[in-house]
Specification:
Layout: E1 10-16, E2 19-22, E3 40-43, E4 49-52, E5 57-61, E6 66-71, E7 74-80, E8 83-88, E9 105-108, E10 113-118, E11 121-124
Antiparallel strand pairs: 1-6, 1-10, 2-3, 3-4, 5-6, 7-8, 8-9, 10-11
Length: 129
């Protein structure tokens, strides 16, 4: 599937052999842990999962053998303490639909990310697929 990176403010492509898992029902009253809110995960070949901020996702696909996720309202800030770091800069939903405990920072290990594009511009080379 050919994705135009310019279509998404922030596009993260994960390493090969990753897929997306979406919980069938998200319970907004549950506490948020780390990257939350719960609901969307990247699943790795090992079975390990990484939570993504579901309320910021504007595109998600894994049909090409790897997970690709577009976010709105998130910024890529680079590396901090060995992690790729992203911040919530604006919410995509009204406050009343969001958990007050939502995370404002998402971190990912660089080994799990292949590429990062911001507004259609490749900003992080990562590892080749």
């Amino acid at each position: 599937m050919k994705v135009q990176t310019a279509d998404y403010p922030l596009l993260i492509e994960f390493v090969s052999r990753t897929r997306l898992y979406r919980e069938s029902e998200v319970f907004p009253k549950l506490p948020i842990v780390q990257n939350g809110p719960p609901g969307t995960f990247v699943v790795f070949a090992s079975g390990a999962r990484v939570a993504l901020p579901t309320d910021q996702i504007v595109f998600a696909d894994d049909t090409d053998g790897f997970a690709r996720v577009g976010f709105g309202g998130m910024s890529f800030e680079g590396m901090e303490e060995g992690h790729l770091t992203f911040y919530r800069v604006r919410d995509l939903q009204p406050d009343e639909l969001l958990s007050p405990q939502r995370g404002h920072r998402m971190t990912l290990l660089p080994d799990i990310v292949s590429t990062i594009s911001v507004d259609g511009r490749h900003v992080w080379p990562g590892r080749a697929r």
